[in-house]
Amino acid sequence: MKTVLIADDELAIRKLYECELRDEGYEVVTAASAQEAIDATRKQIVDLVIMDIRMPGMDGIEAMNRILEENNELPIVINSAYSAYRDSFMSWPADAYLIKSADLSELKDTVHRILDGKPSGIGVERESVV
Amino acid sequence: MRDIKVLTMILAGGVGERLYPLTANRSKPAVPFGGNFRIIDFTIMNCVLSGLRKIHVCTQYHSLSLGRHKNTRWNFLSSELGEFIELVPPKMRTATGYYQGTADAIYRNLDLLDYYRPDVVLVLSGDHIYRADYRRFIDIHIDSDADITVLTDWIDASQASAFGVVEGAGGKICQFVEKPSDPTPYAKDGRCQINLGVYCFQTRFLVQQLINDSKKKTAHDFGKNILPGALDSGAVLSCPLELICPDEKPYWRDVGTIDSYYAANMDLLRRPAPLGLHDPRWPEGSRFHEWLPSVYPGIRQDGGLPGRNLIASGCDVEPSWIDQSILSTGVTVGEGSVIDGCIVFPGARIGRNVRLERVIVEENVEIPDNVEISDSVGSEHLTRSQGGVLVVSSGYRFTEPASSVRAARPEEERDETHAGGGQVTQVVRRGMERHPTKSRSPRSRQVAG
Question: Which end of chain B, N or C, is more open, meaning fewer C-beta atoms within 10 Å of its C-beta?
Fold first, then answer.
């Protein structure tokens, strides 16, 4: 079973995504901050990270770059309420950039697209978001 | 010249292993060149005279001397006009350690590209000797609607194995071959087109390529990875150096080894020099002219046809025989010394009756009186290049036992003395104890500058 890490400082978002992705057949772990997300990727095998940007302390873009520095094949999906970061070169290493929405179909489609056919814990050939 | 927003990144972090020991305490771009220059001056000069004055220099290895040189030599750019030359060491923001390769140096500075949002990024090597008009290069890049434009030059195929060879037609590159052992299959009329390490990128294309490369296990190198990888996804074009060269005949040298470094310095002494230090683009009356070392005719002890010398400011030269040599700033030469085919770095002090032949003397080295160093004498513990050029490095001590300094010739007299707390074997050449003017007439005392 593929494991998805959800990094978001809002408890309600974490719970919502956790329920939805478990229903889709994924194992889910959560992190309430960028640092917790980095620690989680070090402690266990994670197949995909859904990363919020604006979190207390370190932001999600820096966390993404730190995670990629240690595991450059780990797919990361940025999931933010803000579109302003979409064109920042710093966010381009993400596999997808999603705007938070009450409709989770795009998020689920993206997770399926990236993880389908991917061996557990090993990277996939990814398309850049650009 | 179009209103194109350009960000200039000079890669100056190379270890320069093949130039060791000249790079023992400085990065390769900071190695002195031509008496009063450093290698990187040629690239920065090209930038400044091309109107590119927002310059980032990616450094990492022994960057102190490079920083000092930048602060003293290139301190006239105006921050009020938005001009700058900034050293960019590895930030360690996410990744730790040195830049993994030339592409990694740019990838780890994506925040700079994000901040300045340039239309194009000019990526330059800081360790080549050449003159080029980068604005013309950028114009050609824009006109041809390229994603990447690579500056190239044609060289004899027999020398091409040391470089990245480019293959293509009509300006479109279809293959990069990095340092081929046999370049002849890529030659046309006996010459190969080589990659000069000067690139102009569309910014978004560059970022895409860098990110794709960062997710692969590669050398993260432009020549080895980024350029070959971009051939399928973008328009990669070549621009011959002759199209953007301000001189009549293009000149480009990679001074990556002691021998190539020495040869490029010696090129400055040729008449006419294939690349004179005087840049035809310098504005009349500008201070650039003050950077030039003086040119003096050489004087040979052996009566051979003399060449020329470059002597930088502040040198103090007693009557001596100096030919085909370059004396950097503040060098002193004692009476009766013979300096033939040498490059002497700033602040070096050469004693009396010293004989040096094809030697590079490092910064602030003091060579005691009566020492002789040439390929056949006194080279036992010195770095010797394949071509026979010797390097007296900063750490070399002349107060070691006799055998490590020099070997005596049969016709010489041996004189054991103690100096500086250690034993030095001095060899006094017959005739050299006389004033040199009695045997031949070297020029009178010179104080250049």
Answer: N
Q: Which of A76, A78, A89 to mutate to test the interface with B (most CBs of B within 10 A)?
A: A89
pLDDT, one tens digit per residue, over B131-147 is 999 999 999 999 999 99
The mean pLDDT value for B157-164 works out to 91
A92 contacts in chain B (CB < 8 Å):
110, 207-208, 211
ipTM for the assembly:
0.76
pTM: 0.83
Cβ–Cβ under 8 Å, residues B31 and B22: yes
Q: Closest Cα partner for A34 from A82, A76, A72?
A: A76
Q: Which chain A residue has the Cα nearest residue B92?
A: A66
Cα separation values, B179 from B158, B194, B224, B400, Å: 12, 10, 10, 41
Query: Which has more pLDDT, B1 or A28?
Result: A28
Which domains are delineated in chain A? 3-129 (3.40.50.2300)
In angstroms, the separation between the Cα of residue B121 and the nearest Cα of chain A is 14
* Residues of B engaging A, defined by a Cβ cutoff of 8 Å: 93-95, 110-111, 113-114, 204, 207-208, 211-212, 214-216
